[in-house]
Amino acid sequence: MIKEINKACEKLNDTLGISVTLPNPKKKALKTAAICNLAVGIGLAAAGILFSSKSYALLGGIGVISSVVLRKESKNQR
Questions:
Q1: Which of 37, 28, 36, 26 minimizes the C-alpha distance to 2?
Q2: If you write DSSP's letter for every residue of the chain in order, what string do you get?
């Protein structure tokens, strides 16, 4: 998914005549980000349950989903 986004941005850069380089994260960086997102997501979800806050619970759920997506993306990296 990251490669496809980078290719689309390169085409846009060529069309607009600008030069912006995007980072291409390595497998280890993606795994680390997935672990951090999971920890923050679980913490926010727990806070949402403890404090009866729907917004914390929603943010926690998004964090956990983000962690799953990053983990899957890290498996597709070299």
A1: 26
A2: -HHHHHHHHHHHHHHHT---PPP---HHHHHHHHHHHHHHHHHHHHHHHHTT-HHHHHHHHHHHHHHHHHHHHHHH--
From first to last of the 78 residues of the chain, give the pLDDT tens digit: 778 888 888 898 889 998 888 888 899 999 999 999 999 999 999 999 999 999 999 999 999 999 999 999 988 876
> Looking at the whole model, is its pTM more than 0.90?
no
Q: What are phi and psi of 33, to 5 degrees?
A: -65, -40
Tell me the C-alpha distance between 74 and 31, whole Å.
6
